[in-house]
TrEMBL record:
Natural source organism: Allosediminivita pacifica
Biased composition (Acidic residues): 59-106
Annotated ranges, domain Pyrrolo-quinoline quinone repeat: 132-736
Protein name: Quinoprotein glucose dehydrogenase
Pfam families, sorted: PQQ
Leader peptide range in chain numbering: 1-35
Length: 762
């Protein structure tokens, strides 16, 4: 069942585009994990059972106690609802108004009418409940399910329904470079997913039995920071009838920069999409450099337009691939529009002959959010190609970097943008997917940031609906005093950011360790939040992994709560003058390709050359002691918080993660102490009153009571749970599922496990 199938389409593509390998696995997620990367698991300290990869017998025919999809989750008139997640699924009977122009049978001598092309009229969105049809659950990306069969009272009875293994494990040069971060979608009877190396897979949602797989044969050279595919997207063709080839298709972007569409029912490539189901996203980008340009997040689909950006490997050179965002026809794969922020009109239809999209501009590596009703798509942008030096940036880069941008998805034209950091030299790119909601009667969008601020904006205009303040008289430093902004916006409604560090916050596993960290604190430049870069060591707090990262937040509609997990640990950085970096032999990924075949390289910020700027950068991500490898600051290093959406007040805040797999020198302590570890991945909240989350580095999958923050149940995973979980229903039974794929940057064991849980059948 797990053997790779021969795939002539993929082989034909690879022969035609042998050089088409590109960049990365999602944002740099190099938070410290203080863990030995071993496969040995211990008994969970929070009433978890030992990991058992054997799936129990499941009675798929049992209807369970209730049809949880029949709850009142359609009530959207609260402050936290108000979206179209519970609308009917798209019609497949061909009578959708968008189907005008549908192909008709030709009569001899009569012209054949062509099918309509994107953009289409506004369509209905897929329903969340028994299905989980989007990466973020429903179309609003709230990571919420109306299912309520699993409750605080019975969650302790959860058992494994099945364990499926994708068979995608690192080999050869991929060793040490896997971070799958994958969340499936559930549609009908099937779970649809992508593996770390972009193998598309369908399995039965009740049993885990494999239906089909499609392997695009992505080469190892394409791996950037890590091999990642966070998810896939669905699109139902309004011109096709149920049972037609590619009536509903699965769409993914790959780390070698292809856009692929296959039939959701069979896994066969949609031949009308691009060339044999594939579109080459290198077109218009420039020289192909494996590992520099890649797609790791699922695309957004709005009115039949597939919208995607790509991750451009940070810190390499000012002359990096463009951060252009493009919209493609979901049926044909043809370019509908391109949004090049430096030349939006000139590049709307792609670059003129002989030119490329503007190099080095801010990119969107994370997940966009689709608004089918307005026809908008919301893009969380990063900063420019050189993260820690800005004086060479253009004015338009300064205007758009680290902003949420709303585009008209039918034309690619900007509607509005909202900037969270001015002249960003801290790598505070926007990593979280924004969430649609109704806020006090206004259609709104909620935006979390890596620096911890949470904003709620009018989704039509971008105007803030919650208070936004300004901090002033910020330090400018000695490197770029005329560039670093002396004031910055902050959310006055809610922030996850903690108080500035002091020497008393320095911590150590031993007194010697603590003394070493205190000495390093005194050596460092630190003037609080937004301390500017320096050639002397300086402290960046929060670090570049948040605050909030790509796992994003979840919203409990019934209880009016935002559930936000976060990291709380600094980076310890210093700029390296160009001549010193040259002496050290620090080269960009393109220079390495010319010299020795290139490759993805190491962690973000670890010896990044920043070619074209006068300084390279060295980052100690998640500042650790040089003596024991333990963090230099007090725990907790990560937590999870409930926020009252009507007031912005904290309801509860708990450390997330125990010390069971963490300890000095990478040796697991085996201690069940709730230390709060760095975490990567988000949560799912249920109408039943539970929040499910993996994310932490202790390999536990938890159920938390949403109203109180109390952990009620946990299970030991066979690999790291750095992925967003989902919830769905089959035959009246509610399932909760997580991908345990591990994460090399988080130093959790790598695996290929898809694990589903449910209550015992009657």
């Amino acid at each position: 069942m797990f053997a790779n199938q021969e795939n002539t389409h993929a082989r034909r593509w690879l022969m035609a585009t042998a050089a088409s390998v590109a960049l990365v696995a999602g944002p740099m997620t190099a938070l410290p994990a203080f863990a030995q990367e071993d496969g040995a698991e211990q008994t969970a300290p929070e009433s978890a059972e030992d990991a058992d990869t054997s799936a129990p017998e499941a009675d798929a025919g049992d209807e369970g106690t209730a049809d949880a999809a029949d709850t009142d989750a359609g009530d959207d008139d609260t402050a936290t609802g108000g979206d179209d997640d519970n609308a009917a699924a798209p019609s497949e009977d061909g009578d959708d108004p968008a189907a005008e122009g549908e192909d008709e049978a030709s009569v001899e001598g009569a012209p054949v009418e062509e099918s309509a092309s994107a953009p289409f009229e506004a369509g209905e969105t897929y329903e969340v409940g028994s299905d989980w049809p989007y990466w973020g659950g429903g179309s609003s990306a709230q990571r919420y399910t109306p299912l309520d069969q699993i409750t605080p009272e019975n969650v302790g009875n959860l058992e494994r329904a099945f364990v499926y293994r994708t068979g995608d494990m690192p080999e050869g040069s991929a060793e040490g470079k896997y971070s799958p971060e994958m969340t499936p979608v559930k549609y009908g009877d099937d779970l649809l997913m992508c593996s770390a190396m972009n193998i598309l897979i369908s399995i039965d949602a009740a049993t885990g039995e494999e239906n089909w797989r499609f392997d695009p044969e992505v080469p190892n050279e394409a791996i950037p920071y890590g091999a990642s595919c966070r998810g896939v997207s669905l699109w139902t063709d309004p011109d096709k009838a149920e049972g037609d080839a590619c009536a509903t298709r699965v769409i993914e972007g790959t780390i070698d920069a292809r856009l692929i569409a296959v039939d959701a029912a069979t896994g066969e490539p949609c031949e009308e999409f691009g060339e044999d189901g594939m579109v080459d996203m290198w077109e218009g980008i420039g020289e192909r450099v494996p590992g520099w340009y890649a797609v790791t997040a699922q695309p957004a689909v709005v009115r039949g337009v597939v919208v995607t950006g790509a991750q451009v490997k940070d810190g390499q050179a000012e002359d990096a691939p463009s951060g252009v965002v493009r919209g493609y026809d979901a049926r044909t794969g043809e370019l509908v529009w391109a949004w090049d922020l430096a030349a939006p009109e000139e590049m709307r239809d792609g670059p003129p002959e002989g030119e490329v999209y503007t190099r080095g501009t801010p990119n969107m590596w994370t997940a966009a959010t689709a608004d089918e009703e307005l026809g908008y798509v919301y893009l969380p942008l990063g900063n420019s190609a050189v993260d820690y030096y800005g004086s060479n940036r253009s004015e338009v880069e300064n205007e758009y970097a680290t902003s949420l941008v709303a585009l008209d998805a039918t034309t690619g034209e900007e509607v509005w943008h909202f900037q969270t950091v001015r002249n960003d030299v801290w790598d505070y790119d926007l990593g979280s997917q924004a969430t649609l909601l109704d806020y006090q009667g206004t259609p709104a969008i909620l935006l979390p940031s890596k620096q911890g601020d949470i904003y709620i904006l009018d989704r039509e205009t971008g105007e803030p609906l919650t208070p936004v303040g300004e901090i002033t008289d910020l330090p400018q430093g000695e490197i770029e005093p005329d560039y670093v902004a002396d004031s910055q916006p902050v959310s006055e409604w809610h922030t996850l950011r903690k108080d500035p560090l002091t020497e008393r916050d320095m911590w150590g596993f031993t007194p010697i360790d603590q003394l070493w960290c205190r000495i390093q604190f005194r050596r460092a430049e630190y003037e609080g939040y937004l301390t500017p870069p320096s050639t002397d060591p300086y402290i960046q707090y929060p670090g570049y992994n948040g605050g909030s990262d790509w796992g994003s937040v979840a919203i409990d509609r019934d209880r009016g709560l935002i559930i936000a997990n976060y990291n709380d640990i600094p980076n310890y950085n210093y700029l390296v003058p160009r001549e010193v970096a040259d002496e050290k032999g620090w080269k960009s990924i393109a220079q390495r390709q010319d010299a020795d075949g290139g490759g993805g390289g190491g962690a973000e910020g670890a010896g990044d050359p920043q070619i074209g700027a006068p300084y390279a950068i060295q980052v100690n991500a998640g500042w650790r002691s040089g003596l024991t490898g333990m963090p230099c600051t007090n725990p907790p290093y990560g937590g999870i918080r409930a926020i009252d959406i009507s007031t912005g007040e904290t309801v509860w805040d708990q450390p997330l993660g125990t010390a069971r797999r963490n300890g000095p020198f990478g040796i697991p302590s085996m201690l069940p102490i709730k230390i709060g570890t760095p975490n990567n991945g988000g949560s799912v909240v249920t109408a039943g009153g539970l929040t499910f989350i993996g994310a932490a580095t202790d390999n536990l999958f938890r159920a938390i009571e949403t109203e109180t923050g109390e952990v009620l149940w946990s299970d030991v995973l066979p690999a790291g749970g750095q992925a967003n979980p989902i919830a769905y229903e089959v035959d009246g039974e509610q399932y909760v599922l997580i991908s345990a794929g591990g994460h090399h940057f988080m130093e959790t064991p790598i695996g290929d496990y898809i694990i589903a849980y449910k209550l015992p059948s009657d």
